[in-house]
Design brief:
By secondary structure, the chain is an alpha+beta fold. The chain has one domain (about 10-114): Ribosomal protein L17 (50s Ribosomal Protein L17, Chain: A). Helices cover about 55% and strands about 20% of the residues. The protein contains four helices and three strands, in the order H-E-H-H-H-E-E. The chain has a three-stranded antiparallel β-sheet. Helix 1 (about 10-30) packs across helix 2 (about 35-50) and helix 2 (about 35-50) crosses helix 4. The longest helix is centred in the first third of the chain and has 18 residues, at about 10-30. The radius of gyration is 14 Å and the shape is globular. The two termini are about 25 Å apart. Part of the 50S ribosomal subunit. Contacts protein L32. Belongs to the bacterial ribosomal protein bL17 family. Keywords: Ribonucleoprotein, Ribosomal protein. InterPro entries: Ribosomal_bL17 (IPR000456), Ribosomal_bL17_CS (IPR047859), Ribosomal_bL17_sf (IPR036373).
Length: about 110
């Protein structure tokens, strides 16, 4: 049984971190972050895309509630990202390892949509 990463943060701050990373990933298509954050972000974003593939009002409301009512990001998921993966069952993102950060030697990774 795997244990969720906490990143030394409280629950609300941790969920805000995931939402913020998800916003950036959805907006830009790929982001560079630490390996641990990328691995935690992957299931979060993939669930959003899976919900968006349903393309109905319930899916829109579910996305709005998970993404702080950010209409721009929800529209991008529903109109651009989800239709692209309509025939794909999961695995919408990839994580590429980039080596360590110079300042503190934390492993970095690039997470992007496939």
């Amino acid at each position: 049984m795997s244990k969720a990463r906490k990143f030394g943060r409280t629950t609300d701050i941790r969920s805000a971190l995931m939402r913020s990373l998800a916003f950036s990933l959805i907006k830009k298509g790929s982001i560079t972050t630490t390996e641990a954050k990328a691995k935690s972000l992957r299931p979060f974003v993939e669930r959003l895309v899976t919900v968006g593939k349903k393309q109905n009002l319930t899916a829109r409301r579910a996305l709005l509630s998970r993404l702080y009512n950010n209409q721009e990001i929800v529209d991008k998921v529903l109109k651009d990202i989800a239709p692209k993966y309509a025939s794909r069952n999961g695995g919408y993102t990839r994580i590429l390892k980039l080596g360590v950060r110079k300042s503190d030697a934390s492993p970095r990774a690039l997470i992007q949509f496939v």
